[in-house]
Design goal:
Belongs to the peptidase M14 family. By secondary structure, this protein is α/β, with parallel strands linked by helices. Among the domains are: 82-164; 199-247 and 256-524. It is built from 17 helices and 14 strands. The chain has helices at residues 3-15, 46-61, 82-88, 101-113, 135-141, 157-163, 168-177, 205-218, 271-287, 293-301, 312-320, 373-388, 421-439, 472-479, 505-526, 547-550, 564-567; strands spanning 91-97, 117-121, 125-131, 150-152, 223-230, 236-242, 257-263, 303-307, 391-401, 405-408, 444-447, 456-457, 462-463, 484-490. The structure holds zinc ion. Zinc ion is lined by residues 266-267, 270, 400, 582.
C-alpha cells in the first residue's frame, strides 16, 4: 500500500475506530481525558485525543510543520485546582544534607518509622516527601544538626504536580497547527529531533496506545505492535518490536535472533521513562533508511523490543487519581494499601521475606517472587522468547527516573561481582558519555547495589539495610544471560524530580536515543561486523554535544547551590549508601 494511501486509512481508522487495523486493542483506550488531562474532571472528550492524533497524521501527509518547533511555553500562573491543593498542598519535598553517619542512620530510621516517601538520594543528600503536619514528628526523631540542614525542592508541590499534565493551551496549539500551511521540507528529510506532537506533552494511555498502533501501521516493514500480556487490571502491556528481520528463522543451534529490550514505566510516576522509551522507538523507526546508516545497520541486524508502559495500571492511576503513585494496582493483604513494586518482584534475588516489608510502603515486594502480575508477564514473555523463539537477549535497558545515572548489575547484593564486570563498566561509561555529549547533562555510573536503602558502616562492615533484590535488571542479567543489562535513571537531579516539565521530554529522549545508537555501534563493532577507526566515535564526539548549553538551557541542580566547602566533606569512617526508590 502506498504510504499516503496507508496514512489515509490510518487517519480514517482514528476518526472511526471501528475500522481499525487488526492490532492489539488495549482496553484502557476507553479511558478518555480532558483539556489538562488532570484527575477528577468529568468532561471527558475522547474526540480531542483523536483530533490530536489526526492532526499529527495530517501534518505528516501534507508535510506541514507543527505550529511551533518547540514545546509549548511552560509559563504557569499559580492555578492548580482545589483538588490538587487538597491532595498535595500539605506536602513538601525536602532535600536533607547529610554530614555524618549518625545523621544518615537516624534519617533512614525515621523515614521507615513514619512510612515517608523517599524520592531519591546520594551520599550527600536525601529527598523525602513529607506532610507539613508530620514535620514536627520527623524532627522529633532527628538530631538537632538536621533541623536546619534541609531545603524544599519545590516551593509549591501541588502546582508542580498540576504542571506536568498537558495544558489546554498546548491542545489548542495542536488544533491550529494543521491549518497553517507554511511551506517546509518533508518531515522525512529533517535532520533534527523528531517534531511529533506526541512529544510536546506527556501522554495518557488513551493517547499512547493508539499512537503505538499508528506507528506500527505506518511502518509495517520494520515495526510491529505486540502485547506481552495483560496487567493486573486487564490492560494489554504493549510492545513495539522493531527490526527488519521479522520473518527471519534462525538456522542451526548457534544462530539466534539477537534482541535488545528497552522498557519504561515500571514505576508509575516516572513519566519521563514512558516518553523516552517511546521517543527512542519513534526515532529509530522514522530514521530507518539510507540517510541514517547507523540506524539502518542497527535495525537490519538486531530486533529491538520497546515496552514503554510496563505498569499500565499504575500509570493510568497517576493520570486519574494520584500523580505520585509508584507501584502497580493489584490488591494486597491490606485492603487499603494496594500495589506491589514491580521492580522488587522478579524471581532472582527476591528479598521480600526480610521482614522490613509493609504492603503500605512504596516499595512493597509482595508475599513471594513474581507476585506482581506485570513482573510475571515480562518474565514469562522473556523466557518464552529465549526458549521457544530462539531469541538471545544481548542488551536490556530499564528506564527509570531520577538522578541521571547508569547502573549495572547486581542490584540484589554488593557481595557478588558480575562475571563480566569490566565489560559492563566499559559500556556503562560509554552510555553515560553518549548522554553527556548529546546535551551536556552529566550521568553517573555505578553498581546498582550501591543504591541500597541506607548506608553501611565501613568500620564494622554492617549494612544497616540490605540491597534491593527482585529487580528486572538482575533478572535479565542473571537468569536470561543478557550480557549488557542496565538500569538508567533519567533526568533530572532533583530540581523537579518525578515532576519533570514537558520541555525535557524531547532533549531527554534525544540523549537516550544517542546512547542506544552508541550501544548499537559498540555491539556491532564487538561482533566484528563493523570496524571503527576511532573507538571514541562509538559513543559520540565532543563536537556533537552540548546542544542544551548552546541553547542556553542549563541544569538547575539544587546541589549546585551548596557551598563548595560542603561538597568536599568526605567522612572517613562511613559510607553513606544511597536510598533510592527506583
Ligand atoms: Zn523507578
Amino acid at each position: 500500500m502506498a504510504p499516503v494511501l496507508q496514512s489515509i486509512v490510518v487517519l480514517l481508522s482514528l476518526v472511526s475506530p471501528s475500522i481499525c487495523v487488526s492490532l492489539p486493542t488495549p482496553e484502557s483506550t476507553e479511558v478518555s481525558h480532558h483539556p489538562r488531562h488532570a484527575p477528577h474532571f468529568s468532561d471527558d472528550r475522547p474526540i480531542g485525543v483523536f483530533r490530536r492524533l489526526r492532526n499529527a497524521v495530517i501534518e505528516k501527509i501534507w508535510s506541514l510543520p507543527p505550529k511551533s518547533s518547540h514545546p509549548p511555553s511552560s509559563v504557569h500562573l499559580s492555578n492548580a485546582p482545589q483538588h490538587f491543593r487538597t491532595r498535595y498542598g500539605n506536602d513538601v519535598v525536602l532535600r536533607f544534607r547529610i554530614r555524618s553517619a549518625d545523621e544518615a542512620k537516624t534519617l533512614a530510621d525515621a523515614a521507615a518509622i513514619l512510612l515517608l516517601d523517599v524520592w531519591e538520594g546520594t551520599d550527600e543528600w536525601v529527598d523525602i516527601r513529607v506532610a507539613k503536619d508530620m514535620l514536627p514528628s520527623l524532627m522529633g526523631l532527628l538530631p538537632s544538626s538536621l533541623h536546619d540542614s534541609y531545603t524544599p525542592l519545590m516551593h509549591d508541590l501541588a502546582q508542580a504536580v498540576f504542571d506536568t499534565y498537558p495544558t489546554s493551551s498546548s491542545t489548542s496549539e495542536h488544533d491550529q497547527a494543521w491549518v497553517s500551511p507554511v511551506p517546509t521540507h518533508s518531515w522525512k528529510s529533517t535532520s533534527g529531533p523528531p517534531q511529533d506532537l506526541f512529544f510536546h506533552d506527556y501522554q495518557p494511555l488513551s493517547v499512547l496506545y493508539p499512537w503505538l498502533r499508528l506507528i506500527a501501521s505506518l511502518f509495517p516493514t520494520h515495526a510491529e505492535l505486540i502485547s506481552i500480556g495483560k496487567s493486573a487490571e486487564g490492560r494489554d502491556i504493549p510492545a513495539l518490536r522493531i527490526g527488519t528481520q521479522k520473518d527471519y528463522i534462525p538456522q542451526g543451534d548457534h544462530d539466534s535472533r539477537q534482541t535488545l529490550v528497552i522498557s519504561g514505566g515500571s514505576h508509575a510516576r516516572e513519566w519521563i521513562s514512558v516518553s523516552t522509551t517511546s521517543y527512542i522507538a519513534y526515532s529509530l523507526v522514522t530514521r530507518y533508511g539510507h540517510r541514517y546508516p547507523h540506524v539502518t545497520k542497527l535495525l537490519d541486524h538486531f530486533d529491538l523490543v520497546f515496552i514503554p508502559a510496563l505498569n499500565p495500571d499504575g500509570y493510568e492511576y497517576t493520570w486519574t487519581t494520584d500523580r505520585l503513585w509508584r507501584k502497580n494496582r493489584q490488591s494486597t493483604d491490606i485492603p487499603f494499601c494496594p500495589g506491589i513494586d514491580i521492580d522488587r518482584s522478579f524471581d532472582f534475588g527476591w528479598d521480600g521475606h526480610t521482614g522490613r516489608d509493609n504492603a503500605c510502603s512504596d516499595d512493597y515486594a509482595g508475599t513471594g517472587p513474581l507476585g506482581a502480575v506485570e513482573a510475571r508477564i515480562l518474565s514469562d514473555w522473556a523466557r518464552n522468547q529465549t526458549e521457544n523463539n530462539n531469541v538471545t537477549f544481548v542488551a536490556y535497558l530499564d528506564l527509570h527516573s531520577y538522578s541521571q545515572e547508569v547502573l549495572y548489575p547486581y542490584s540484589y547484593t554488593c557481595d557478588v561481582q558480575p562475571p563480566n564486570l569490566e565489560d559492563l563498566e566499559e559500556v556503562a561509561i560509554g552510555l553515560a558519555k553518549s548522554f553527556r555529549l548529546t546535551n551536556g547533562h552529566y550521568y553517573g555510573v555505578e553498581s546498582a547495589c550501591e543504591g541500597s536503602i541506607t548506608f553501611k558502616d565501613k568500620a564494622t562492615s554492617k549494612r544497616m539495610q540490605g540491597e534491593q533484590g527482585g529487580s528486572a535488571l538482575d533478572f535479565f542479567y542473571h537468569d536470561l544471560q543478557t550480557k549488557f543489562a542496565y538500569q538508567i535513571k533519567l533526568r533530572d537531579t532533583g530540581t523537579y524530580g518525578f515532576l519533570l516539565p514537558r520541555s525535557h521530554i524531547v532533549p531527554t529522549g534525544e540523549e537516550a536515543y544517542e546512547a542506544v545508537l552508541g550501544l548499537g555501534r559498540w555491539l556491532l563493532g564487538n561482533h566484528g561486523i563493523e570496524k571503527f577507526d576511532d573507538l571514541n566515535e562509538v559513543w559520540g564526539t565532543e563536537e556533537a554535544g552540548m546542544k542544551d548549553q548552546e541553547q542556553g538551557i542549563v541544569s538547575q541542580d539544587p546541589v549546585d547551590v551548596y557551598d563548595k566547602e560542603d561538597e568536599d566533606i568526605d567522612p572517613p569512617s562511613f559510607e553513606l549508601r544511597r536510598r533510592r526508590r527506583r
